[in-house]
Design a protein that fits this description.
By secondary structure, the protein is of the alpha+beta class. It is built from 2 helices and 5 strands. It has one domain. A hairpin with an 8-residue loop joins strand 1 and strand 2. The protein is globular, with a radius of gyration of 16 Å. About 25% of the residues are buried. The mean pLDDT is about 90.
Length: about 120
C-alpha cells in the first residue's frame, strides 16, 4: 500500500520556500519617499471587511531608520489592478531591500497568523 505524501503545513502553503505567496511588490525608482509599495492580496481571507479590497504597505528603502518611512493603508478596491503604473515597476519580493522584506514578512505573518 502506497502512502500519500504529507500535506504541506499552513505556513508552507502561505510561504513557499520562505517567500510570502500573497503579495505584489512595486518600485517607483526613488521618485518619492514611499519608493516601495507592497500590496497584500487575498485580504478577505484574513479580514472579511475588506472583501474586494486590499491592505498595502508603502515604505522607503530603510523603513526602520529614524528618517525612514513605512506606512500601512487599506483600500476597499485593489490599488494595483487593472493597472499599476502609478506604483512603479513590478518587482519580485527578493528585489526589495532587506529591511523592507523584514517589515513585509512581519506584517504578512501577523495577518495570516503564522510564525
Amino acid at each position: 500500500m502506497q502512502m500519500e505524501p504529507p500535506k504541506p503545513s499552513r505556513h508552507d502553503r502561505l510561504m513557499p520556500n520562505g517567500m510570502p505567496k500573497y503579495v505584489r511588490c512595486y518600485d517607483n525608482g526613488g521618485k518619492s519617499i514611499d519608493r516601495y509599495t507592497v500590496v497584500f492580496t487575498q485580504t478577505s481571507k484574513f479580514d472579511p471587511m475588506l472583501r474586494g479590497g486590499c491592505v498595502y504597505l508603502s515604505m522607503s528603502a530603510a523603513p526602520f531608520h529614524p528618517q525612514g518611512f513605512g506606512q500601512h493603508g487599506e483600500s476597499h478596491t485593489i490599488i494595483d489592478r487593472p493597472t499599476y503604473g502609478h506604483l512603479g515597476k513590478r518587482i519580485s519580493f527578493q528585489e526589495l531591500p532587506e529591511d523592507c522584506q523584514r517589515l513585509v514578512l512581519t506584517d504578512y505573518q501577523a495577518f495570516w497568523g503564522i510564525g
